[in-house]
Amino acid sequence: MGGGGGGGGRGGKGGRARTQRKHFRQSRENVWKRPKSDLSSENNGGSNDGKNPSWTPFATQNDAFDEYYKEQGIVSSQEWDSFMAVLRTPLPAAFRINSSSQFSTDIRLQLENDFMKSLHAEVIEGGEVEAIRPLPWYPENLAWHSNFSRMQLRKNQALERFHEFLKLENEIGNITRQEAVSMVPPLFLDVHSDHFVLDMCAAPGSKTFQLLEIIHRSTEPGSLPDGMIVANDLDVQRCNLLIHQTKRMCTANLIVTNHEAQHFPGCRLNKLHSGMELDQHISQLQFDRVLCDVPCSGDGTLRKAPDLWRKWNAGTGNGLHSLQVQIAMRGLSLLKVGGRMVYSTCSMNPVENEAVVAEILRRCGGSVELVDVSNEILQLVRRPGLKKWKVQDKAIWLSSYKDVDKFHRSTVLPSMFPSGRSFLDLVDDKHDIDVQNNVSNGGNGNSEDGLQATEKSVIEYDGLDGKVSEFPLEHCMRIVPHDENSGAFFIAVLQKLSSLPAIQEKPKRLRGINKHLSKPPSQGNKDENDVAASTVDCTDEEVSEAAVANDINNNEPNGVVSEVNPLVTCEEQDEEAKVPCNAEAELKTTAGKRKLQMQGKWRGVDPVVFFKDEVVINSIKAFYGIDESFPFNDHLVTRSSDANHVKRIYYVSKSVKDVLELNFSVGQQLKITSIGLKMFERQTSREGSSTPCSFRISSEGLPLILPYITKQILYASPIDFKHLLQDKSVRFADFVDAEFGQKAANLLPGCCVIVLAKGSKTLSDPSKGNESTIAIGCWKGRASLCVMVTAIDCQELLERLLTRMETEKSPSLEDIPSIAVADKVQNSNYKIDVAEGTES
Ligand SMILES: C[S@@+](CC[C@H](N)C(=O)[O-])C[C@H]1O[C@@H](n2cnc3c(N)ncnc32)[C@H](O)[C@@H]1O
């Protein structure tokens, strides 16, 4: 509805953002990019046929990679060549229609009826089989695969119209360009609109966007879903990508946070927290669904990041295993009993996948189940998880932990192996058997080969202990590139059956170490495993408290960051889908201008403050005639501690409000980087401040509040609406419908809302609207109405309007000349006639 909700009509996105976007694109050139002359070699990833002597092909060969994956058997030896051949080709582009956009059906029809046919003609000429097709496993033809790589889309003239379409709709938020396999994890999460969902490692946010779509899916205009998403990422800059990405969704049901996922605060309210509110709705953060899309080595993205061929080594996966376990364990501790968690990576490596899943099942005892989802999403081609694999360290293959020499026991962990058992565990387990044997053997502890009885029994025991996992890891899923011409992905679905046990692993391990080793392997080397032990040796509640304590003590991310930062992550290469608005850089440049903000204990982060200024709220209500049924109280927040200079007012859903109240009660444990939907913005110009209301309605917030507005709202005929979008500023006397022109002249000066009238709707019709209602914010000046919508949103609205008009064959429009607005896209800022004296 309206211009927003991912359906155009948004404001406030300025030229600055556009410039940053350009710079960002320049700094993140597609790694497949080659000289223009080289398009013919697109699919060999190798030569440019000698056309450019200075050109060096990407190495798409790495012997260590070959050896590693041949040994792991993730594909059969017969398939090896086709697996490798596909891995060496660029990844075809894929994208998803935003299902909650008001134009989702229009876009789907355009793809089915227009592009599928016109592009097919192109590729037939080019000797290809097909151009674009819906992904069969994604609901309602909402996700699409194209047989063109992103470079082909950019360079091929015949594809220009399609490329422009993708760019525009992506920017507006009607589609999201996303790798096909990356769309899979949210589908298995089974999210409902009332769910509280935690996306633990969320940036740049393609999956968060998908989750938001799902919770918003069946929401009525003017209402919000009961659920909400907390999207978290450790990396501040990537958080900004996430914020930009999700802004296109225009949602009041999202909180973006910046924490180490493995220490995500539980916000548990207890008697320690003074000022506890009696009517607190929730007493700790617990989620119905958790998405755990962890940092990984990313070799499933080789097709779009061929520079990874050069960098690949087995050590990267080994180095991440422990962090992945910690993050997954924290996710499970924050999951409600009965809730579902999806663990996923864009890596093919079993050490980052099956080994992690096995370890969390081991740690959780029977409280967590690996769900068999083989009967869900049947059309998705995938392979079962592995039950056995090997570990490689410094080019040496290790079949079990006993092969690990003592110098490497801090980097190669027992949990990386299928048995998941350590030397020490085995000794501990075997100890009891030995005691019994010794008793039955008459107590002789020495053997013929001179080994101590315990040492020998360990080796024998391990020999018996299979190299096959005891867990049903076949329920995991691995998507491999040559099955469906995609990237690779790993997904496991977990369900929490009961509270996590209080694991007594650490004391046991220490006992073992003291007994059998003169020097503990981790002594003087505080590695991740120590952190893991301290994190998981707790019940859910203890974990919450530990995390809280950690957060209080460590406002800055700890050393794990440096280990993770150099990694390539699934969506990182998808530069066209991302626009950074670098808040850190902004912070630096504005540091001299304003005082560093504090959000509770978080330094350098704008505070989140409930906005309760009755005078301002009442003036807004009165000016726009906002119906009393619209829930204002405690739903408005600002990011400024200075109540007198509030520039933007954000709206938060009830679910977000509850979390925010909890967060205040527990001393602001959450470091919030973005929250809520921008609803009102202060007028800054001379004339703006002289209007009866100093706040205008932002384009993002308009769809939500539209059904409740009773003043400063008019219905325009299609012809006048189109006129406004086309010319941006129209004098009252120039409207085709003179009555509309007169009504516009009678509005109070300042912000107003113009709704596209439909069918029998009269100009004074109050409307609750529906999802197809199109509305834009305008400025009523002295002699004209000016559109307050970005040029790109105007372009989108015009195109959609024209399509609808053609479909409806509106006779009143037949004589309107077609409109060329492409040249206006250069400037995405809306501009209000300077003569009107309002801001631009
Ligand atoms: C695979 S990417 C996530 C992709 C994302 N889910 C999406 O679909 O767009 C992994 C993310 O984890 C973040 N990360 C790395 N270490 C982390 C940690 N300890 N806690 C939280 N996030 C972390 C990285 O910054 C990166 O953005």
Strand content: 5-15%
Low-confidence stretches: 1-50, 430-465, 504-592, 761-766, 810-840
Number of strands: 28
List the bound ligands: S-adenosylmethionine
Over the alpha carbons, how many angstroms does the gyration radius reach?
A: 29 Å
Distance between the termini: 25 Å
Main sheet record = 10 strands, mixed
Integer average pLDDT: 76
Q: Approximately how much helix is present in the residues?
A: 25-40%
The class by helix and strand makeup works out as alpha+beta
SS element count, helices: 27
Coarse shape: globular
Describe the fold and architecture.
The strands form six sheets. Strands 5, 6, 7, 8, 9, 10, 11, 14, 15 and 21 form a ten-stranded mixed β-sheet that branches. Strands 18-19-20-22-23 form a five-stranded antiparallel β-sheet, with no helix packed on it. Among the domains are: 388-468 and 505-537, no CATH class; 583-682, no CATH class; 712-836, no CATH class. It is α+β, with helices and mostly antiparallel strands and 840 residues long. The model is unreliable at 1-50, 430-465, 504-592, 761-766 and 810-840 (pLDDT under 50). It is globular and about 85 Å long. Helix 11 packs parallel to helix 12. Strand 12 and strand 13 form a beta hairpin. It contains 27 helices and 28 strands. Bound molecules: S-adenosylmethionine. S-adenosylmethionine (SAM) is lined by residues 182, 201-207, 233-235, 238, 260-262, 293, 295, 560, 564, 569-571.
